[in-house]
Design goal:
By secondary structure, the protein is of the alpha+beta class. Helix content is about 50%, strand content about 10%. Strands 1-4-5-8 form a 4-stranded mixed beta sheet. α5 packs antiparallel against α7, α9 packs antiparallel against α10 and α15 runs parallel beside α17. The longest helix has about 35 residues. It is globular. The C terminus is likely disordered.
């Protein structure tokens, strides 16, 4: 079976506005009102072969790199986030086994997953939230050679539906860094009465998702349920989160696609005060800025997804940045689009069956998945000393960086993960950011460089230089000061801007048209450095006055909006 492509999946799913389409806005609205899981839609995704994309090629699946997986998740999320979150959770649940499991475990799980078995990931607990080191679920060695699980996991996606669940449990009651282990629990192999699924929690968004929990009461699991080495559970989770956090941003990109499609279509067709709404300068600027922000999000997501294979030792930085930056930016895009839709943004049964208000509710949870923004920024803050030092040294992995920013370059598979490839703390810093001075120098000497693009790049570099000066003076503390979180936000913007600039240079101004890469890959946006200028302006405008005067920015965003609001060649208008 050939690998499923994003374009192929989009075609197979049909028109979401169509009355007879299974995966339609109308059907998703009905399910949301009933708070019902989208079983039939997920079954159709199974039939189309999406679970195979969650399984590494080494175990019989089609997963090679995160870039391809993210493109598929983005397609599903562009129609409905509840479906995307409910289905893609199986990849998140299986990822620890791809990272640390034995080949026998991985092959057995791959067979189950490709046969359609949902897989869940049980990390959080009612009393501890994101404090994983406080885990209370206990795994006590049994005379049989296995373990007995006692305790519960709560607010777990697919905890009830999942046939298998990978749980983090305490194996050493004394505590310490080696107190936790991971276990892949197969519910079908448990004795009756030793576990129960906790009630589904009613949620503001993703109302149909199975957000529930599971409680164990001395449940006996075999020794082969242990994933990785005993006592290495927390470490394995932290390494695996570097992959899952990166893929989660595809949920946000899909949400942005959905919001912008609706806003562009509505403003193009809405007549107000004797003119089309899309002709109003404020509307054009708002849509243009939203498309420019999406371009920046696409750039940082693409580089982060490719870095998992190209620069795995630096993925702890990339994953923290992208998981904090992208959902926050997309929240802003959704808010801007909602402003343009007006009252229709709040109605539950008007304008595409009320799918926009559902989208706005649903997306708010994406920033929480696999570590919220504070968690990710704190992970970045912990790496400030090495980031400051490596920037000062100008340390760069040239081969890895070239692969990360070259979408056509081959990459090693992201799974199974060789020991030591994903590091808890990046010893090399971030090659992407640390190469920014050289990238700006290359832009200066490149033939035909648009002076407007160069001016934005110089501004980005100045901001980056100033930031690293601040990082060098920050003193380590057990609890990070509030100022450190502000600096983490600045670092995210430097990383995003560096991603834009490196992708521009790697493309040489002439990209191949690849729809699966999103808006960024449209050839029209490469003329006069348009996409790079717009994305850099959006990044630089997040924390300070937008660069350039109003008329220049209006022209820039108008140009981006004209391309972004139009369908790409061969794309259906929805």
């Amino acid at each position: 079976m050939s690998a499923l492509t994003a374009a192929g999946l989009e075609r197979a799913l049909g028109d979401p506005s169509g009355p007879k389409t299974l995966f339609s806005y109308a059907r998703c609205a009905e399910l949301d009102r009933a708070e019902a899981f989208p079983e039939a839609i997920c079954a159709e995704l199974d039939r189309l072969g999406l679970p195979r994309q969650y399984v590494p090629v080494a175990y019989g699946g089609a997963l090679t790199g995160l870039q391809e997986l993210a493109a598929l998740v983005r397609v599903v999320a562009g129609r409905d986030l509840t479906v995307a979150i409910g289905h893609a959770k199986s990849y998140l649940g299986a990822a620890c086994v791809w990272t640390a499991g034995t080949p026998e475990q991985a092959r057995a799980l791959a067979d189950r997953l490709m046969a359609g078995a949902p897989v869940s990931w049980g990390l959080t607990e009612r009393a501890h939230g994101s404090d994983l080191l406080a885990t209370e679920l206990a795994a006590v060695p049994d005379a049989s050679g296995g373990y007995r699980l006692t305790g519960e996991k709560w607010l777990i996606n697919n905890a009830t539906r999942g046939e298998l669940i990978c749980v983090l449990a305490r194996t050493d009651p004394a505590g310490g860094p080696r107190a936790l282990s991971l276990f892949l629990v197969d519910k079908d192999r448990l004795e009756p009465g030793v576990y129960r699924c906790l009630p589904k929690q009613r949620t503001h968004g993703i109302r149909g998702a199975d957000i529930s929990g599971i409680a164990f009461d001395g449940a006996l699991i075999s020794a082969d349920a242990l994933v990785g080495e005993a006592g290495h559970g927390a470490e394995t989770v932290l390494r695996t989160l570097q992959l899952t956090r990166t893929v989660c941003t595809a949920l946000s990109l899909g949400a942005a696609d959905h919001a912008l499609r609706q806003a562009a279509a509505f403003t193009a067709g809405r007549e107000l005060y004797g003119s089309r709404l899309a002709r109003f300068p404020h509307v054009r600027r708002t849509l243009g800025r939203a498309h420019a922000t999406l371009l920046a999000c696409e750039a940082v997501s693409l580089v982060a997804n490719r870095s998992a294979g190209a620069l795995p030792g630096e993925q702890s930085v990339a994953a923290s940045v992208v998981k904090s930056f992208v959902p926050e930016c997309v929240d802003g895009i959704i808010a801007d689009c909602g402003e343009l839709l007006g009252g229709r943004a709040f109605l539950t049964e008007v304008h595409e069956h009320g799918s926009f208000q559902k989208l706005a509710r649903d997306h708010r949870v994406v920033g929480i998945f696999d570590g919220n923004q504070a968690v990710n920024r704190n992970a970045l803050i912990n790496q400030f000393p090495v980031l400051a030092r490596r920037y000062r040294e100008g340390r760069v992995d040239p081969a890895g960086l070239a692969a990360a920013v070259g979408p056509g370059s081959p990459l090693p598979p992201v799974a199974p993960v060789a020991p030591g490839r994903l590091e808890l703390v990046s010893r090399g810093g971030s090659s992407l950011v640390q190469n920014l001075p050289s990238a700006v120098a290359a832009l200066r000497t490149a033939e035909g460089t648009d002076p407007r693009l160069l001016a934005l790049a110089v501004r980005l570099l100045a901001r980056c230089e100033a930031l690293h000066g601040k990082l060098a003076t920050l003193r380590p503390a057990r609890v990070a000061p509030a100022r450190a979180f502000d600096l983490a936000e600045e670092y995210e913007e430097c990383f995003a801007g560096a991603a834009v600039l490196h992708l521009w240079l790697a493309g040489g101004g002439r990209p191949a048209h690849r729809p699966e890469l999103g808006l960024w890959a449209r050839p029209e946006l490469w003329q006069d450095g348009l996409w790079a200028r717009a994305a850099l302006a959006a990044v630089l405008g997040r924390r300070a006055q937008e660069p350039g005067d109003g008329a220049e920015l209006d022209a820039l965003y108008d140009a981006v909006e004209a391309v972004g609001a139009a369908p790409a060649a061969g794309e259906e208008i929805r």
